[in-house]
Write a structure and sequence with these properties.
By secondary structure, the chain is α/β, with parallel strands linked by helices. The protein contains eight helices and ten strands. It folds into two domains: about 160 residues, D-Maltodextrin-Binding Protein, domain 2 (3-Layer(aba) Sandwich); about 55 residues, no CATH class. Helix content is about 35%, strand content about 15%. β3, α2 and β4 form a beta-alpha-beta unit. The termini are far apart. Belongs to the bacterial solute-binding protein 1 family.
C-alpha cells in the first residue's frame, strides 16, 4: 500500500504507511495563529478546517540538521497544529545514500525532502515514489509565480514511462543564475547575450546546431548527488 500526506516542503511521497498515535503533541509555535498581522492567517484557518488528520503520524526524512532542523520543525509545528497529526522529522548528512537504501528496502519515510531533482527523478523512474496528483500540480500552477515551470521541475517519468507530478518545491536558492564556458562559445562562434531576448535566440541557435543549450543538473555519473553545478550551466 502506498500512501502520502502532503506538507509544504520539497516533498516527495514515498512508499509507506501512516501509523496511528494516541494524541497529537502540543505544537511549539513561533507565532500564535492570528496574533501577527504580517502573516495570512486565513489560509492557515482554511487549511485547518479542510484537513483533520487527528491521530495520524507522518515520518519526514531530509538533509537538514542543527539550525536547519530547527527551522523545518518550526514549519511542521504549524502543520501539526492545523491538522492534529504528528510529524516525526529525522535528518542525515548522508541523505542521498540513505534514501536510496531505504526506498529499495521498503522502509522509506512517508515524505522525503530532496535537495536535488536528479535523484528524485531517478527514484521515480524505478517506481519508488508516489505521485502527488494532478490537484496538487494544479494548485502549484495557480499559486506559484511561473507555476508551470515549478510543476515541470517536479514532473518525472514513472516506472512504466508515464510522466507524473512527484515533487512539491518548498524553497529555492539562487546560486549563480547562468554561467558558461568561454572556450565553447569561442569555438562555436557564439556571442554572449546581453538581454533575455538574445539569450532565447542563442538557445534556439544552439538547438538548431544540434546541441543542448542549458542544464539544471549534472548527470549522476558526473555528480552522484545530482545537484545543480552552480544553478544553471550553458
Amino acid at each position: 500500500m502506498k500512501t502520502s500526506m502532503l506538507i509544504g516542503a520539497l516533498a516527495l511521497a514515498l512508499a509507506g504507511t501512516s501509523a496511528a498515535v494516541t494524541a497529537a503533541q502540543a505544537a511549539d509555535l513561533k507565532f500564535a495563529p492570528g496574533e501577527d498581522a504580517r502573516f495570512n492567517w486565513q489560509s492557515f484557518e482554511d487549511f485547518k478546517a479542510a484537513n483533520d488528520l487527528s491521530g495520524q503520524e507522518m515520518s519526514l526524512f531530509g538533509p537538514w540538521l542543527s539550525a536547519d532542523k530547527d527551522l523545518i520543525e518550526s514549519v511542521t509545528a504549524y502543520f501539526e497544529e492545523a491538522t492534529g497529526a504528528k510529524v516525526n522529522y529525522s535528518g542525515s548528512d548522508s541523505f542521498e545514500q540513505q534514501i536510496v537504501i531505504d526506498t529499495q528496502a521498503g522502509s522509506a519515510p512517508n515524505v522525503a525532502v530532496f535537495p536535488q531533482p536528479g535523484l528524485a527523478a531517478d527514484l521515480a523512474s524505478k517506481g519508488l515514489l508516489v505521485p502527488l496528483g494532478s490537484d496538487t500540480a494544479d494548485w502549484m500552477k495557480d499559486n506559484y509565480a511561473a507555476g508551470q515551470s515549478w510543476v515541470d521541475l517536479g514532473t518525472y517519468e514513472n516506472q512504466d514511462g508515464t510522466r507524473a507530478f512527484f515533487a512539491f518545491p518548498y524553497k529555492a536558492d539562487v546560486k549563480s543564475l547562468v554561467w558558461y564556458v568561454p572556450e565553447n562559445f569561442e569555438d562555436a562562434g557564439y556571442q554572449v547575450p546581453q538581454t533575455m531576448e538574445e539569450l532565447k535566440a542563442l538557445s534556439e541557435q544552439i538547438v538548431a546546431d544540434g546541441e543542448t543549450p542549458g542544464a539544471s543538473a549534472l548527470a549522476p555519473a558526473a555528480r552522484p548527488a545530482g545537484l545543480p553545478p552552480t544553478g544553471w550551466r550553458t
